[in-house]
Amino acid sequence: MVERSDRAPLLDWEEVPSAEKPGATPEKDRLSSPSNSRALGCTAPGFGWSTSPGGPRSVSDTDGGSAPPATSSTPTGTEAPCPDADEHPPDSGPGEVSLENRMVKWEEKDQIVSVFVVTFNTRSGNMLEWCLPRDMDLEGVEFKAIASGSHRVTTDFIYFRKGCYFGLACFANMAVESAVERGARMKSVGILSPSYTLLYRYMSFLEHQVRLQLQSPGHYSPLEAFYEDKRARLPPSGEAVVTACPANAWGATLNHSMHPEMKITHPAGCMSQFIRFFGEQIMVLWKLALLRRRILIFSPPPVGVVCYRVYCCCCLANISIPGVGVAVPEFRPFFYVNVADIGALENELAYVACTTEKIFEEKKDLYDVYVDNQNVKTYREGLKPLLRLSGADRDKYRKLTEQRQMLLYSQEENGDCVSSEEDLFILFFLEQNNRIFQTLSEVAGSPDPTLTQESVRAMGLDPHGDRLFLLHLLEIYGYDTLLVSDQLCCS
Fold first, then answer.
1. Around 37, how many Cα atoms within 13 Å sit in the side-chain half-sphere?
2. How many helices (H) and strands (E) does the chain have?
3. What secondary structure letter does DSSP report for 10?
4. What pLDDT, on a 0 to 100 scale, did the predictor assign at position 418?
């Protein structure tokens, strides 16, 4: 079933969830996965920066859903790591309950660590009005939940990072006859979780609650009940980590029957709009993402659709070949950032983020690539040639467009409801990336480890126009034993 979405100009349809999860009560299903959910995230388990390791599935399952792509293989450092299987064993032995059933049960676990209300005060600016738990460190969340410039829009939603957690906040702006409030009342209701892939479950709830807070300020009982019902179970150590998927269940994630939640308002489900927005420039972003560059996207509010672009940029760098990319910087989605995040961004080697604050353009040491709407630019001399499209780039984009047209024709003429336009785009880049690294591995293992024009073409690259991109790729991914033929000269 398809219905119109009022979420954003680029997001023009959304899919209502199908059948209920096995064993779920109707009451719980309505709370955790409402049929009118403006979802963001995926049904695959996730925490930290990951969704599902190994990339998206190429074939839809019997439920018609498919797993979203991975943005990274494992989290780094101490930021919401996945506990060992010994510390968090599965609910029952493999002989009693199938691994797939355990995955379903794990997915339904609630992982909300905080709920809060942020308001705009005409004298003090953005303020944290209320929160649970009371002792949660929410310093700076008031500037993340209400983006700079939000007074120009009536509604919005914002994804952001707060320490080792991810947040989702729904913003609303209501006209009021009040001189004290200067004619407008602005609030956001938000939550924090260790995973952005689970936040979509509560989008509809947050949208409803922010409207209630505007109409009846100070009534927090629904939010209190929500937190008591959904709050995460912290481990005995008390550290800022949350019980996550058992380690021995990760392998089953790719084959798990995903429930087809709405797609188009999920960042992995708006890839087609993302590519249509950037056009051929998507090939430039693809290369920069694969090279693990720091990418900052600027756009005025509303910021929700721009948060989707952050996630889609990460999807361009998917690689499903085991062992490839383990030594390169992790490509992290920061979602919305403001001036309070400057310190955090200074220490990041690779990330994608978005902002509504124009001042970031002047902070040239914080990013490698600055995207102003559809204009991709860099101040790094060594990267400027990568902004030019090669002949192979145009060929790939043409093939991508042709495949999309064929899919749309098949859907219209044959009623093909199984194939997904989103899957087509995600798999296109996954297969392209795998093709590159498979060829590099084969050449590296050959008696003559030299990249020739033929081997470069086998990767789907231009021997002349992509030479600089290839040299960066070899350096970053550690293929330092490979030799580059003298025939690969700049055009």
1. 26
2. 14, 14
3. T
4. 61
Q: Which residues of the chain have a pLDDT value below 50?
A: 1-108, 236-265, 267-268, 490-491
DSSP 8-state class, residue 420:
-
Rounded Cα–Cα distance for residues 197 and 272 (Å): 19
Inter-axis angle of helices 281-290 and 421-444, to 10 degrees? 50
CA pair distance 86, 445, nearest whole angstrom: 37
Q: Do 68 and 46 touch, CB atoms closer than 8 A?
A: no
pLDDT at 326: 86
SS3 labels along 82-143: CCCCCCCCCCCCCCCCCHHHHHHHHHCCCCECEEEEEEEECCCEEEEEEEECCCCCCCCHHH
Residue 23 zone, left/alpha/beta (φ > 0; ψ -120 to 50; rest): left
Give the residue among 255, 274, 257 at the shortest CA–CA distance from 265.
274
Measured distance CA(309)–CA(316) in Å, rounded: 11
Q: Looking at residue 421, what is its pLDDT? A: 77
Both structure tokens of 170? 């729904």
Residue 14 CA, distance from chain mean position: 18
Structure-token pair, residue 67: 């797993």
Residue 161: per-residue pLDDT: 95
Contacts of 15 (CB under 8 A, 6+ apart): 1, 2, 260, 261, 262, 263, 264
Tell me the per-residue pLDDT of 289-339, one tens digit each, with 9 for 90 and over.
Answer: 999 999 999 999 999 999 989 988 988 999 999 989 888 988 889 999 999
CA–CA dist 466, 488 (Å, integer)? 9
Q: Which pLDDT score is estimated for 426? A: 85
| Contact between 423 and 60 (Cβ < 8 Å) | yes
The answer to whether the beta carbons of residues 23 and 283 sit under 8 Å apart is: no
Q: What is the DSSP string of 299-325?
A: -PSP-HHHHHHHHHHHHTT---STTTT
pTM: 0.73
Q: Identify the CA nearest to 314 among candidates 336, 296, 290.
A: 290
Question: What pLDDT, in 10s, does the model give residues 24-83?
Answer: 444 434 333 333 333 443 323 233 333 333 333 333 333 333 333 333 333 333 333 333
Q: Which of 339, 345, 311 is nearest to 426 (CA)?
A: 311
Amino acid at 155: T
